Amino acid sequence: MVKAIVGANWGDEGKGKITDLLAEQSDVVIRFQGGANAGHTIINEYGRFALHILPSGSFSSHVTNVIGNGVALDVKKLLRELQSVMEQGVPAPRLIVSDRAQLLMPYHILQDTYEEELLAGRAFGSTKSGIAPFYSDKYAKTGIQVCDLYEEERLRERLNAAVERKNQLFASRYGKPGVDAEALFQDLMEQRELLRPYVGDVAEFVRQALKEGKTILLEGQLGSMKDPDLGICPMTTSSHTLAGFGTVGACIPPTAYEDVIAVTKAYSSCVGSATEPFVCELTGEAGDELRRRGGDKGEFGATTGRPRRVGWFDAVATRYGCMVQGATQVALTCLDVLGYLDEIKVVTGYEIDGEVTDRFPTPGRLERARPVFTTLPGWKSDIRGVTDYNALPAQARAYVDFLEERIETPITFVSTGPKRHEMTFRTSKL
Ligand code: GDP
User: Fold this and answer.
1) Is residue 179 domain-resident?
2) Number of domains in the chain
3) Residues with Cβ < 8 Å from 297, sequence gap 6 or more?
């Protein structure tokens, strides 16, 4: 049985917490896209962690964690993260790295950095982790797969060709020095030995796991709005953030999906460029307060530390986000954060060129959208850590009912705090 846990919005919805929780009753957790460019915050009996590349099942010793072929694999970051969680007392996670995953190389990071410098004010808000150049190379068929590490001649050939192209680009487009193919090769020779114990055939592993009736969780990175096709182009990431991509990025048979859990916060948050359209944004003092109170330590990026933009819950974007994920249910996180508010607004429509719509627009029209709000009463109490849904204040439950109706997807998990078991379970009214 396969369940996907994916983001309904701009990322940072709390997927790590939900994955960590569900991993307790699962056998396998797979990352199927993205790289180390975003972090999942997890707070459990071992402490507080921001995982960037390791799957969030890494804290459950019965779970096999898998880096699928769809991931941008930065080997050094993976090994460092593995080391770091073990140093914090976590038993060595069981890990398989797909032999078909491609390597995120130092020249991808350089290219990303140079490109953002060149674009300056028109930049895409990249984390400069090399993600866009990595996926560009993958689709230009100039990438290097993990399996190539163990085929020296092939590796040398592919690496030399890639470096030649990169060095031409670095000189002509950025006026920067080139990289040294031999030094990179020697580096890869070291990395391959460290990686060797983890490398495996993920397609075969998944097939066997499904045959044995195992439960597999797919863990998405970022969210619907960041999908290159269905998100807010070009302010997206470069890999598909949608559950459907797990069929490619983790070799999951399309018919094996049982559940797609879209995660969304009870308000909105978004990292990235300031020029990105964010219709629901709350600015000024009210925004600062929400940012300070949000998440487990304020709304600041788990990878970059950048302050996240915050806003009211956006039912237009989230309805669309759930739709494109094919969500069967929704996990609503951070409801506890809103307990200080007298009134809570929800974006229930966008006004575009004088017309109000509840359908999420294409990117050009999105730039002209203005929010239309519905205001609901707050519950003015601290609900942190409540585990019985029916024990929540009536206004809090009414707020959740309202969101569910608007996003047209059953809300079944309502999270009341950052810790693993700060969670309530709700029966949908849809
Ligand atoms: P992810 O990338 O989707 O896993 O999300 P992040 O970890 O980047 O951001 C989610 C933030 O919200 C983190 O700081 C979490 O610890 C925090 N968080 C998750 N669920 C809850 C919740 O129910 N209440 C509160 N207060 N914080 C939460």
Assistant:
1) yes
2) 3
3) none
Does ligand 1 have an atom closer than 6 angstroms to the CB of 15?
Answer: yes
Domain boundary among the residues 195, 210, 229 is at: 195
52 part of a folded domain = yes
Label residues 281-311 b or e (16+ Cβ within 10 Å = b). bbeeeebeebbebbbbeebbbbbbeebbbbb
Which residues face 314 on adjacent strands? 347
User: Which residue pairs from 292-295 have beta carbons closer than 8 angstroms and sit at least 24 positions apart in sequence?
Assistant: 293/337, 293/340, 294/265, 294/267, 294/269, 294/334, 294/337, 295/12, 295/41, 295/269, 295/334, 295/337, 295/418
Ligand 1 mean position, distance from CA 147 (Å) = 35
Task: Indicate whether 430 belongs to any domain.
Answer: no
Which residue in this structure is represented by tokens 């916060």? 265
Mean pLDDT of the region 385-402:
98
Q: Give the domain extent around 340.
A: 263-425
Residue 182 and residue 277 in one domain = no
Cα–Cα distance list, 258 to 61, 253, 254 (Å): 24, 11, 10
Q: What span, in angstroms and rounded, lies between the C-alpha atoms of 187 and 75?
A: 11
Which of 17, 29, 33, when mutated, tests ligand 1's pocket best, judged by the most ligand atoms within 8 Å of its CB? 17
A 10 A CB-CB count for 255 gives 8
- Residue whose Cα lies nearest atom 11 of ligand 1: it is 295
pTM attached to this predicted model: 0.95
What is the pairing mode between strands 47-51 and 343-352? unpaired
Task: For ligand 1, say whether the CB of 219 is within 6 Å of any of its atoms.
Answer: no
Q: What is the pLDDT of residues 319-358, one digit of tens each?
A: 999 999 999 999 999 999 999 999 999 999 999 999 999 9
**Is 202 in contact with 210 (CB distance < 8 Å)?**
no
Residue 3's nearest CA partner among 222, 239, 210 is 210
pLDDT of 133-185, one tens digit each? Answer: 999 999 999 999 999 999 999 999 999 999 999 999 999 999 999 999 999 99
Q: Which candidate, 384, 297, 301, places its Cα nearest to that of 340?
A: 384
The four Cα atoms 411, 413, 417, 418 give a dihedral, to 10 degrees, of -110
Give yes or no: residues 146 and 45 share one domain: no
Distance 221 CA to ligand 1 centre (A): 13
Both 354 and 324 in a single domain? yes
